[in-house]
Amino acid sequence: MTRLTNASIARMEPPKGRQTFVNDEDTPGLAVRLSPGGTKAFVYQFRDPITRRKKRKTLGRCSQMGIDTARKIVRELQAKVLTGDTPFSAPSVTLQDAYDNYQNTHLIHRRPSTTRTYRNIWTHVPKQLALTPLARLRRADFTSVIDGVQAKGTTGSAVLLHKVLKAVLNHAVRKGHLELNPLTAVPAPAGLKPRERVLSSDELRAVLQAAERMPTPTGALVRTLVLTGCRKSEVFGLTWDEVVDGVMALPPERTKNGHAHRALLQN
């Protein structure tokens, strides 16, 4: 490492073989890149605030800017890095932008009920967080929101929020708006107990008796729910094409788990 000056840079000889870098002693992160062809350029070397990976960006040729100008630019860029910004990045994509993009390219192909569920759970995301550029967000920003929802006693909502945020951030990574997903190594909130409550025989009998008094087709639909164990959306959305010889045959796109399902409707 040496203190770079305009004179010392002018005396530098091109390397043989691969390009080399000469770091500036006065300004950490500033270096001169020497190419075998004789090109000399100022570069800024820094650690990405999101990925923690080392990056190197070209500032300009040494013949077009002096060392003082290069040092001034690097100090300005260092200030951006300290605030969590990434120099030379594309226009900032906010968390809300990422969610909207995920909704328009992914959720649009899901069932309307899934879209409503995701939209409702997104209301737990504070507006300030949603409008923050992805590059400035940290893992703690997300976990604090998730923990806050769980602290209110709604562990199920916290688990779903974790799932939605993770999906949105994974989508942002695929789109190139984010280097790494901050929630990759963060497990879903613990404490969610699986539902074990089921209707007793007496309760099922009461439901079936009440269904007999309901108008058509509501009563028939309720009886089908009880006798098949299918979800409401699966039964209420049933078409004649999905009933074959007294058997309800649901295609994969109509079931929550994505698997075809068959249920007997009559003896």
Description:
By secondary structure, this protein is an alpha+beta fold. It has three domains: 6-82, Integrase, DNA-binding domain (Double Stranded RNA Binding Domain, 2-Layer Sandwich), CATH 3.30.160; 95-175, Orthogonal Bundle (DNA polymerase, domain 1); 201-264, no CATH class. It is built from ten helices and seven strands. The protein has a four-stranded antiparallel sheet with strand order 1-2-3-4. A hairpin with a 5-residue loop joins strand 2 (30-34) and strand 3 (40-47). Helix 6 (139-151) runs antiparallel to helix 7 (155-175) and helix 8 packs antiparallel against helix 9 (218-228). The longest helix is centred in the middle third of the chain and has 21 residues, at 155-175. The N and C termini lie far apart (86 Å). The mean pLDDT is 86.
Quickly list its features.
267 residues; 7 strands; four-stranded antiparallel beta sheet; alpha+beta; Double Stranded RNA Binding Domain; single chain; 13% strand; 10 helices
CATH topology of the largest domain: DNA polymerase, domain 1
Q: Output the helix-strand order.
A: HEEEEHHHHHHHHHEEE
- Main β-sheet, in a few words? 4 strands, antiparallel
Q: What is the CATH level 1 assignment of the largest domain?
A: Mainly Alpha
Per DSSP E runs of 2 or more residues, the count of β-strands stands at 7
Helix content: 40-55%
Query: Can you name the CATH architecture of the largest domain?
Result: Orthogonal Bundle
Q: Structural class, judged by helices and strands?
A: alpha+beta
The number of distinct helices, counting runs of at least 4 residues, comes to 10
Q: What is the number of independent domains?
A: 3
Beta-strand fraction estimate:
5-15%
Rg = 30 Å
State the strand order across the main sheet: 1-2-3-4
What characteristic shape results from the CA principal axes? Answer: elongated
Average pLDDT reading? 86
Low-confidence stretches: none
- End-to-end separation: 86 Å
